[in-house]
Every structure is written in structure tokens, then in C-alpha cells.
Amino acid sequence: MARSLYIDGRWVEPEGGTTFRTLDPATEEPIEEVSMAGSPEVDAAVDAARRAMYAPGWRGLAPADRAGLLFRLADLIARHGAELAALETRDQGQPLDVARNVSVTGAVEHLRYYAGWVTKLEGAVTPIGYPDTLHYTRREPVGVCALITPWNFPLMIAVWKLAPALATGNTVILKPAEQTPLSTVRLVELAEEAGFPSGVVNLLTGDGTVGRALVEHQGVDKVSFTGSTEVGRSIVAASAGNLKRVTLELGGKTPSIIARDADVDAVVEGNLQGALLNSGQVCAAYSRFYVDRSRADEFISKLAAGGDRLRIGNGADGETQVGPLVSAEHLSKVENLVNAGVGEGAELVSGGDRAGERGYFYRPTVFAGVTDSMVIASTEIFGPVLPVLTYDGEDELAALAERANGTEYGLAAAVWTNDLSTAHRLAADIRAGSVFVNMPPVPDPAAPWGGFKASGWGREMGRYALDAYTEVKGVFVHHGGGGA
């Protein structure tokens, strides 16, 4: 039986005995059988997390000792980095260089960042109007947290959630996407080795029914979810039973605005990085490009040529720059959206088809002649598809934020210009959680991450994640004897 359910400090088998296969997206070959959690395992994991939440071994742990556990886990991930990167590449498909330098490195950095916060979680004394009364605040953990993660960066995004949740004293149940569970299983093995008390970290693998059971469970106090906007909406509805705290990092359709004064060669390089990292399977991937009409032909030709030069192949090959899409289902979705773009009259400049006979590979695809109303300009594709739109001159550039804001999403945006006033004006006017000026969309553990509008609720990373995983309690202490 697959070893992928971890509950109350033990690896267990599901009562139903059901398993599912995870596939290598580069070869379409099965990698491993993984356990499918059922209702008994969901209940057992929630019960274990609730008990651990109030057990002296976790609740009574000194902050420095809790920080030590996080530092120890970070060290273990770093020590096993090559193994984890190879596992992530095989299960998810991302190039090995991305798995090493983004996924594994990002996981280590996040754990160390939040380990440093553990001993700095402070309350405050607040002057209030009552005489002879001391008022102070305490930051306390929310409780049992269900951490539901996506398939595009399974290891790193699991740690994005796990690190602040544990730093603030919560207990957790990790539920990875069924397409890519293996690096999360290994992460939990390393957490066990690091010495976290039983029940503090639990793992349930399975499909969306497992995630939904956690969202609906009365014993879960918080849900943190990264994934599609459609599923995010269903989580909001399903969490209403006990009014769970919810953090959502959802879809995006990131606009990249290129001013006339920008260096086209540098812009093309930066936008290829921002659009094609992990084959475009990034929530903040640059996915619609607004270019001054006078520079459009040059930008489009260089963008298409740059995409054509990128090496497509198995991520395990160290020379690969563009790996496969994660699954046959997702490949079909990307193909359908590309066909919709052609059907609506967009000009297919490059790509537009699969690469190779096996594996879920798709060529970088550049469209010209795109308008804001086309499906490829408004729908999240989550693949290597680059639609180029145009605007006319400085007057339209000044008002371009309105077009950039013209989708339901607001996760990220990019501005490319040598004029700081243009950069600051557009950054202020665009409705997005993060704006990147003259750079690809690379989050940092110390900076807030999250979206406006249908791109989500709340913020992860930085000090803002501490708010997401804590409740603030006010304590009033009267000094005047037995009454107020």
C-alpha cells in the first residue's frame, strides 16, 4: 500500500484501500500508487490536529523551540535538495533548474524566514478609557488549518502555507493536488524527522472530495487554498457552516505593459521568463502583453523568435527550458483555448501545436492582432500562450490601467519603462496585489502575496501571513478590587 497518509504521527492505510496513480507528464508513464483518503481518514486527521493543538508538547513549547523545529526542517530540505528537485521534476514536469532554484530554494527560504518570526510575535499594551484598567493584546493561533495546495509548485506552495501556520502555533492538515502529491509526501517525512510532535503535521492525499470534506468539516478552523477561482468560490460557500477563516490565492491574467521607451531586447527576455516559467503554469505568469503600436512588430517578431529558440523537453534533462504541461486534461484545455483564439481571428505567429509524440508538451505560442474581448485575452490559460495587444502612443499609455483592469482577475501586473513617473502612475492605477516593474514576477518571503477581485482573499508571505494565521485577543485587567 502506498505510504502517503500521515495522521497523528503515524503512516496509515486508508480503510477503503483505494489508491490512484501519479504520472510523469514528460513520459505519460506511472510513477507511484498513492493512497486515497476517505471520510474516516479525514475525521482522524482533524481529531489528531485538534488534540495536538492543545497538547502541552505543542501549545506549551517555548517559542525558541518551535523556531528550532522550523529551522531544522529547512536544513533537512536543503540537505535533501537534489532528491526533492528530482522528485518534483518527475511528478510535476518542471525543468530541473526550476525545481532546484525556485521550488526547493523557495521552500528553504520561507521556512527560515518564518522561523525567525516565532520569537517576535508580540502583543501590545493599549491605553483605554477605563480607570485602573490594563488592556493588552495576545496573538493566538487560529487552530486547525487545512492547507490545500495546487499542482504547479507543490513543494514550494505547501511550505508557503506550512511555515507561517506552524510559526504561529497552529496545527495543520496538508492536502496536495492529486496530480502532484509526491514532494509533499517527502516534505512530511522530513517534518517527522525534524521532530514535530504527533498530530501537529498531518497529510491526506486524494482528489477534490478530500479537499471538500476538509472545507466542510466542523473541526477545521481555517482553510488556505491556492488554485482556480472556480474552486475558490466553492470553498467560500462550503466553509460557511462554522464560518472558517479562509485565505484564497486564485487565478490571474497578468497584464504586461510595455512603454515605447523600454529596451525591447531586455523586455522580450524578461517577458519570456515571466510568461514561460514552468511552461506558463504560474498564477502570476505574464499572459497578455500591451505594446505601443510603433514597437509592436519588433516586439512580436523577437518574442516569437525567442520562444522558438527555447529547448522543449523532459525536465530531467538539464538543458531543458520548457517542460511539459502537467496532465492530458490540462493540455487539452490549453489546446482548446488556442483554437478559440484562432477562431476569433487572432493571428497565430508561432507555436500553436504539441511538441513530440509522447508527454504533454506544448510549444510556446505567440498571438498578434489580439483584442481585449477575445477569450485568450480575458481567460486564464495557464500555459505557454502569449497574446499581444496594442495601444497608440503616450495618451493611451496613460489610460492603459483601465484596459489592464478589464478582467475579473487582479493577482499581478508588470510595467516595463525607463520613466519612473510612468511606472509609479500605472502601479497605483492597476488593481492587482503585486506590480512588477522591469522584472519577471518573482515573489519573496518578506513581501505580501495575494490578489484583488476574483484573484483571492487575504495575503500570504511577509508579516501579513501572520495575520492570516492568528487571532488577536484583547485582555482587560482591572486593578480596583472586585468591580469596575
TrEMBL record:
Pfam entry (one): Aldedh
UniProt keyword annotation of Zinc-finger present: no
Lineage, top ranks: Bacteria, Bacillati, Actinomycetota, Actinomycetes, Pseudonocardiales
Source organism: Amycolatopsis cihanbeyliensis
GO molecular function: oxidoreductase activity, acting on the aldehyde or oxo group of donors, NAD or NADP as acceptor
Gene3D superfamilies in the cross-refs: Aldehyde Dehydrogenase, Chain A, domain 1, Aldehyde Dehydrogenase, Chain A, domain 2
Regions annotated as coiled coil: none
Keywords: Oxidoreductase
Keyword Cell wall biogenesis/degradation on entry: no
InterPro entries for the chain: Ald_DH/histidinol_DH, Ald_DH_C, Ald_DH_CS_CYS, Ald_DH_N, Aldehyde_DH_dom
Chain ranges of the Aldehyde dehydrogenase domain: 11-474
Protein name (Swiss-Prot/TrEMBL): Aldehyde dehydrogenase (NAD+)/betaine-aldehyde dehydrogenase
Protein family (similarity comment): Belongs to the aldehyde dehydrogenase family.
TM stretches of this protein: none
